[in-house]
Design a protein that fits this description.
The chain contains 18 helices and 29 strands. The protein is α/β, with parallel strands linked by helices. The strands form 8 sheets. A 6-stranded mixed sheet has the order 11-16-15-14-12-13. The longest helix is centred in the middle third of the chain and has 23 residues.
Length: 675
């Protein structure tokens, strides 16, 4: 390595045409080409929620190395805590340093357009601002600690159905305001790479999407390399001409075709030199970063961060007073998700899955060690969640005798994961039966959901005493969950994705044929669409309960620039419990000139407030809070008019309001509505 550092950096002018062509293709499954030792090698690995590193053992078998398991991205985003996202990136960088990984293939920032998408667990949100901000903090933490980030999947990979072939048919405005927006925001953190998607975008494969790559580089300021998803390239020459720099993994067939096309004049020297230059710059910059990298957090510290994410990302959806548990309560725990003997229970499948995950997860032990009452356990149903195990009747009777019955239900690797979409938002029937049977015998029934996406709880929600959305938890998640259930910690997570009442009203892919998905809803995605169409949502975007109670008051809005306003308000914790509140600021124009969503998140803040105290919250609304993308002008536009500002605890419960008047590209007046 020391000798390599002393070598003069190679420029594109130092390479032959053959070497440049070779540089555009990976070396094997996880590495870049070294050109016979001329260049440093970049080692890549999967791992948005835990480093997924492959090795070949002495028998020639490919194995996964043990790694720290972090909560799913869905859980991380439910924290709404950008500092925690940054620390997660920092922790993962130490994982990468341990394993000699230079580029982490994460994070995924695709919008959760379809509630049934199988990969929603590894994406952030249905809202582009929240997704972009959280992902940007994650990338900053990862890269400032010495490891490169590869943001994915560009673009419009919003379901897994027929993803290798289907075309996402989407308007330019929806692209700019929703599907490109998280990438635009995360580009401010200067990710080392962006990964293209498998699908087509408006008929063109994402690997050949020259228009999209141009927006990425020229409009968003992206200066890294574009890497293909694994085997996503159909025509290497067309992809190179469009702006895709590195194809992964290496394909002998594609490489030979690329060389032949170059010889036949189908790939210009200009395009070849541009791509090769970007790859050289990427390799040198990344290796300079990783050569200076140190393991800044040991494994125990990384596990502590994973546990903190779980503690802040678990969301309390319903509570009739059964939580927190009393120390003397006799508690009956039911369901294999509470004490799994396989990672299948508490993780989804695909490239974001690490094989050794969570086999030590034991909610029963975590509760038993903290209570004076008796904690019993019945498995009842297993990982596939389609059949009962043991005596289900005995489990229900055990719950009936206890002070509190906790049903641990969910999905898992058999239902959610890369390459498949869920068939329904409902839990498997055996789980719904277990919940209803338990609740019929004990009104103090708590349901804990282990899933990576919204669950339709309407068939049994009204029968149970409390509902907790845990998501897929990482190392220490059982301890974090037990602390929350017992009140040792307060719930502070809020939903980054709406929970609709019925999957029928939220099913998006009914606009899908075998080869095309029509994004007919335009901007009406997630809470934007539910608000506009009046569709049933049981738990709205931004929703989450707490043991504390907060009051909003004293809104003030002040223009601090032509199109910039400071919004401030008071948050009081009027309870006896310390807590953290995620307050949210939404904007919508009154009588807009073009179609605009009725409500859009434009700012938010997570504020820790001690019991009985009050904090003053300040957020800034800039030009982007009032703008939309004008397809007629091909640019972002702010129209004159009146804009309503709403402050509240979620997208439906708005407590403070004000209006801003914009004329001639300036804020000319502000009025706060009285309570």
């Amino acid at each position: 390595m020391a000798e390599q550092k002393k070598k003069k950096k190679i420029t594109v002018n130092d390479l032959t045409a053959a070497e440049k062509l070779r540089l555009l293709c990976g070396d094997g499954m996880w590495r870049t080409a070294s050109l016979g030792g001329k260049l440093p090698v970049v080692v890549m690995s999967d791992g948005p929620v835990g480093l997924r590193t492959e090795r070949v053992d002495e028998t020639g078998k490919t194995i996964m190395l043990p790694a720290v398991a972090y909560p799913s991205t869905d859980v991380l985003c439910n924290t709404w805590n950008e500092d925690l996202a940054r620390r997660t990136g920092e922790a993962l960088s130490s994982d990468c340093a341990d394993r000699g990984v230079d580029l982490l293939l994460a994070p995924g920032v695709n919008i959760k357009r379809d509630p049934l998408c199988g990969r929603n667990f590894e994406y952030y949100s249905e809202d582009p601002l929240l997704a972009g901000n959280m992902a940007g903090a994650y990338v900053a933490g990862l890269q400032e600690s010495g490891t490169g980030a590869c943001v994915k999947h560009f673009c419009c990979n919003n379901s897994e159905y027929n993803r290798l072939y289907q075309s996402s048919e989407v308007s330019e405005r929806a692209l700019r305001e929703l599907y490109y927006k998280p990438f635009e925001i995360v580009c401010k953190s200067k990710p080392a790479a962006v990964m293209c998607a498998y699908n087509r975008v408006n008929g063109v494969y994402a690997s050949e999407n020259e228009k999209g790559f141009s927006v990425l580089r020229e409009c968003f300021g992206f200066d890294g390399v574009v890497i293909s998803d694994w085997c996503a390239v159909r025509d290497r020459t067309a992809a190179a001409k469009a702006g895709l720099d590195i194809e992964m993994p290496f394909s002998e067939t594609h490489y030979k075709k690329l060389c032949a096309d170059y010889e036949n004049g189908k790939l210009s020297d200009e395009a070849l030199n541009a791509a090769a230059s970007r790859v050289l710059d990427f390799v040198y910059k990344l290796k300079e970063r990783t050569d200076k990298r140190k393991v800044t957090r040991n494994e125990k510290e990384r596990q502590t961060i994973a546990r903190e994410v779980a503690a802040e990302g678990i969301v309390l959806l319903k509570n009739n007073g059964v939580l927190p548990l009393e120390r003397d309560d006799n508690v009956a725990v039911c369901g294999s998700y509470a004490k799994p003997n396989s990672a299948d229970y508490l993780t989804a499948g695909g490239s974001a899955c690490i094989e050794n995950r969570l086999t030590s997860f034991d909610l029963v032990r975590a509760l038993d060690s903290r209570t004076r009452g008796k904690v019993t356990y019945d498995e009842a149903f297993g990982a596939r969640a389609c059949t009962f195990y043991g005596d289900a009747r005995a489990a229900v009777l055990s719950g009936a005798k206890a002070d509190v019955c906790i049903i641990c239900a969910g999905t898992g690797r058999q239902i959610e994961g890369e390459g498949l979409d869920r068939e329904t938002m409902r839990l498997p029937l055996v789980q719904e039966r277990a919940i209803l049977s338990a609740a019929a015998e004990n009104t103090q029934t708590v349901v804990v959901l282990f899933a990576g996406a919204p669950v339709d709880v309407s068939p049994w929600e009204h029968e149970v005493g409390a509902i907790v959305y845990a998501g897929y938890l990482g190392d220490g998640g059982d301890e974090a969950l037990a602390e929350l259930l017992l009140g040792d910690r307060n719930f502070s997570g809020k939903l980054a994705t709406s929970f609709p009442v019925f999957d029928e009203v939220s099913r998006i892919v009914d606009c899908t044929t075998v080869g095309v998905t029509r994004y007919e809803e335009e901007l009406s995605v997630g809470y934007r669409g539910y608000a506009e169409n009046g569709r049933g949502v049981l738990y709205p975007f931004g929703y989450g309960l707490s043991y504390a109670r907060y009051e909003y008051d004293s809104l003030a809005v002040e223009a601090v620039g032509d199109l910039m306003a400071e919004v401030s308000y008071s948050l009081a914790n009027v309870s006896h419990e310390n807590g953290s509140e995620i307050s949210q600021v939404y904007v919508h124009p009154v009588s807009p000139r073009v179609s605009r969503p009725e409500r859009e998140l434009k700012a938010y803040k997570k504020t820790e407030i001690a019991a009985g105290y009050e904090e003053r919250v300040h957020v800034l609304l800039d030009k982007t809070a009032f703008s939309y993308y004008s397809t007629a002008k091909g640019q972002w536009q702010v129209d004159d008019g009146v804009y309503m500002i709403g402050v509240g605890e979620n997208c439906k419960d708005i407590y403070l309001s004000a209006c801003i008047v914009i004329e001639g590209g300036k804020i000319v007046s502000v009025a706060v509505e009285e309570d």
